[in-house]
Design goal:
265 residues
Length: 265
């Protein structure tokens, strides 16, 4: 059986995965420095450039992988006369593609969408800042929903980074060693060295992405904590008309809001 198609497909997958790792590390490093408080909840938690690049790249990679798998299965049928092995190959390719696509979709699409910024914006937009009891209860429910969303954040992105690292290392290291040890020409030696260098770059990109993700996560958590504190203060402020006989409460809440705004600048 000719293994050349499998080798080409494997090297293609490794190259695309490595490019995605490097792109992910760069965008995360940039995002970690750009986390700011904003009333737009989408601005804080979603990076559409990274999502779009990952979606297109993964789709193209899976399409090429499926094409090579189908070609391999066809060769097994027509050249080797083994339809059973061809069918098994197609099933394995389909399962692998489904698993990779599922992980990618969960990592790309399922992002946390905390609504503290939107709640704060809606509370600020009321001109006289006076709410009835039903409205305050509705805001309390939205605050509870935002808290629950933060506890259900997906951990698929770190898992996808680990999978990407394993894929690159599993392909480039054996291929690089094999090309160097059994080199038939200088070109194969250089190709083997390039494969090993790709493994080193993959490890470096993984480390940079993990560190940048931790920094960005801490920055996001700080912003969300500030937004939540201000939402709670605004809700307390909204309850003041219903609290007769609490002297100085309005002034205390006003000072607390001013302090929160100063801390977020």
């Amino acid at each position: 059986m000719d293994l050349a198609p499998l080798l080409v497909a494997a090297l293609f997958v490794a190259t695309v995965t490595l490019a995605l790792q490097v792109g992910d590390a760069i965008t995360l490093a940039v995002d970690a420095r750009r986390v700011r408080d904003d009333d737009d909840p989408e601005l804080l938690t979603r990076n559409r450039i990274r999502e779009l690049s990952w979606t297109i790249a993964i789709t193209a990679t899976l399409a090429v992988f499926v094409a090579f798998g189908a070609d391999l299965a066809a060769r097994m049928v027509w050249d080797l006369g083994n339809p059973g092995l061809a069918y098994l190959t197609l099933i394995l390719v389909a399962l692998l593609v489904f698993a990779i696509g599922l992980i990618a979709v969960v990592a790309i699409v399922r992002r946390e969408r905390p609504t503290y910024a939107r709640i704060r914006r809606d509370l600020r937009d009321r001109p006289n800042h006076v709410f009835d009891e039903d409205e305050i209860e509705a805001f309390d429910g939205r605050l509870a929903d935002a808290d629950r969303q933060l506890t259900r954040r997906s951990n698929a992105a770190p898992a996808l980074r680990i999978v990407s690292l394993v894929v690159v290392l599993a392909i480039t290291v054996p291929v690089g060693i094999e090309l160097i040890v059994e080199a038939g020409s200088a070109g194969e030696v250089w190709l083997g060295i390039a494969a090993l260098l790709a493994a080193v770059v993959s490890i470096a990109a993984f480390i940079v992405a993990v560190r940048a993700s931790v920094v960005r996560g801490a920055a996001v958590e700080a912003v969300l904590a500030g937004q939540r504190a201000e939402v709670i203060a605004l809700l307390e402020y909204a309850r003041i008309p219903q609290r007769k006989g609490v002297p100085g409460l309005r002034d205390r809440v006003t000072r607390a809001l001013a302090i929160l705004r100063e801390q977020q600048k």
